[in-house]
Amino acid sequence: MIEEQDPQPDDQESSDGYRPPVETMKYGQIDRELREVFGVSVMYLLVPIFLLVTGSISVVASRWFLRVLPGAAAVFVAYWILLRAFAPMYDASPEMANRYSLLISRIAGGIMSTSHSRLAALYDRREELKDLEHVN
């Protein structure tokens, strides 16, 4: 017989189970997590791309389908480009990429399952370890 379970509360998942505390992480671990978060935060650019294309097309087209289809196509093309471009963008300027991720995180209230406070702590710890590396 199947027993009913109590519903779980609707709060965000705790990152304690699968992610180490920021204070114990090494530079490589922090850089890897920041790179992954930047990859997701770059995808937030798809929203203004869709709105820009849809808005510019709506001036010309009158039917809903004709307005949304080019915007959806632009999103798929931009997604493909951004998916391949985020790693070189991060490598070219990690500080700028991390500041962008912090901005998006602040605006959106976090990026996926990474809260803004964890992202800020990761960025601060990265800077701290980077300074220690340059001193030695």
TrEMBL record:
Top-level lineage group: Bacteria
Residue ranges with Acidic residues bias: 1-14
Originating species: Blastopirellula marina
Keywords: Membrane, Transmembrane, Transmembrane helix
Region of interest (Disordered), residue spans: 1-22
Protein name: Uncharacterized protein
Residues that span the membrane, as ranges: 37-58, 64-83
